[in-house]
Amino acid sequence: MYLKKPFLFISFSLFFLYAFQNKKPKLEKQSDKIKAMVQEKIDNYLLQSKRECEEELIKSVELKTDSILMFEVQRLLKKDNIKIPTKPIKPTKPVLKESKE
Asked: What is the DSSP string of the chain?
């Protein structure tokens, strides 16, 4: 009985030391996994927001170019294709000579 108590104490203390030693690397591994997952989510979010910004930019540019093209088409349609000739320059008045009769 005298040998049982120290043996139990030593065995339990070794068990707890071993158990707590192994948990530290597991926590570090989990921490690394968590950091990797968080970084992946951040990368996905940035990529998604970049795509959305590009799509909005493309839509706004398309609207502006469409409006410019429509303006040009309307301007060309309103323009007459028949050219009106310019007015001729009037000649100067001839000087009338008085007759001597």
From this structure: -TTHHHHHHHHHHHHHHHHHHHHHHHHHHHHHHHHHHHHHHHHHHHHHHHHHHHHHHHHHHHHHHHHHHHHHHHHHHHS-SSPPPPPPPPPPPPPPPPP--
Question: Can you give the residue ranges of every domain in the chain?
Answer: 18-78
- Convert the pLDDT of each residue in 6-56 to its tens digit: 777 777 777 766 766 655 566 677 888 899 999 999 999 999 999 999 999
**pTM of the entire structure?**
0.44
